[in-house]
Each structure stands twice: as C-alpha cells, then as structure tokens.
Amino acid sequence: MDDLEALKIIREKESSVENDINSFIDEQKKILAELKKESEEKIKEEKERAENDYFKHVSEVKDETEKQAKEIVEEAKAKAVRLSLKVSDKDLEKLVMDKLEKFVKGD
After folding, report:
1. Which of 42, 64, 91, 96 has its CA 20 to 30 A from that of 23?
2. CA dihedral in degrees (34, 40, 46, 51; nearest 10)?
3. If we measure between CA atoms, which residue out of 24, 19, 22 comes closest to residue 11?
4. What pLDDT, on the 0 to 100 scale, is given for residue 106?
5. CA–CA separation, 87 vs 82, rounded Å?
6. How many CB atoms lie within 10 A of CB 107?
7. In angstroms, rounded to a whole number, what is the distance separating the alpha carbons of residues 91 and 76?
8. pLDDT below 50 — which residues of the chain?
C-alpha cells in the first residue's frame, strides 16, 4: 500500500467519522427539539390549569362575598323593619296614653 492509498483510506475514515458525528448531532437536535416541545406543552397545560384554578377561586370568593353581602343586607332590612315597628308602636302607645290622659282629665 502506497502513501496515496493510505491517504485515501484516511480521508474515507475521516469522512465516515464526520458523517457519524453529523448524524449524532442531528439525532441529538431531534431529541432536544422533542424535549423542548414536550416541555412547552407541559408548561402550557400547567399555565392553563393554574389560570383555571385562579379564576375558579376568584369566582368562589366572589360568590361567597356576594352571599355574605346579601345576608348582611337582608339582616339590615329585617332590623330596619323591626326598628320602624318599634318606633311606630311607641308612637302609638304615646298617642293612646295622651288621649287617655286627656279623657281622664276631661279635656
């Protein structure tokens, strides 16, 4: 084997190794791209789940707050009705007592 044949064989081996390296790099890029895609999908799913949980919680808090506000308003209305009746009863009682007093005095 002469030097020319040896150089040819060396170049073929270099080319083969270069092709193997390029194939390995391409394969690793594909794996990396797939992992990136999977990660982005998981991130998107987690973000959507977190947003849904957040909005669900906000909705629950809003509903509970509205319920409490409604209960407070209803309780206030009931107290207002009772207070107005008590005032009216006292006014009536005073009016009756005044009339009885005038009647008794003979006015």
Report:
1. 42
2. -160
3. 19
4. 74
5. 9
6. 7
7. 22
8. none
pLDDT of residue 88: 66
Least Cα distance to 94 among 83, 86, 82 occurs for 86
Which residue in this structure is represented by tokens 């150089």? 7
**pLDDT at position 79, please?**
80
H helices within 2-107, ranges in order? 3-105
Tokens in use for 45? 């799913």
pLDDT value for 86: 64
> What integer pLDDT is reported at residue 23 of this predicted model?
96
Q: Report how far residue 80's alpha carbon sits from residue 12's, in angstroms, rounded to the nearest whole number.
A: 100
